[in-house]
From TrEMBL:
PANTHER family per the UniProt record, alphabetical: FOUR HELIX BUNDLE PROTEIN (PTHR38471:SF2)
Protein name per UniProt: Four helix bundle protein
NCBIfam families in the cross-refs: four helix bundle protein (TIGR02436)
Bilayer-crossing regions: none
Coiled coil: none
Amino acid sequence: MNSEELKKRFKVFALRIIKLSNRLPNDLTGQTIAKQIIRSGTSPGANYRAACLGKSDKDFLNKLKIVEEELDETLYWLELIIEAELLKSASLDDLVKENQELLKIIVSLIRTMKKKLNQGMN
């Protein structure tokens, strides 16, 4: 998968998160989690785009780590939504799966970049 395809995938993911947040209950719990998941769920795409503009491999790696953290946080909020039964689990299965797949891709990119940086130091 090239960087342009991944950017598109992150944007679609962010849009899905926004739509999910609009389905959460209009109470204190729902609105609090909605704000959190919108922030963490839209951030990976923006940070990945920033990573692609990185000034160096080290800068790219650092921004990828932010993407990883935000994806992990989004997964946490999705798990809370499911476990608190704010939305039906079945309606979130595809979104959780996409979150996990994006996380795996980013972790793989991080590993590859770390290897590249370590080889450059030898």
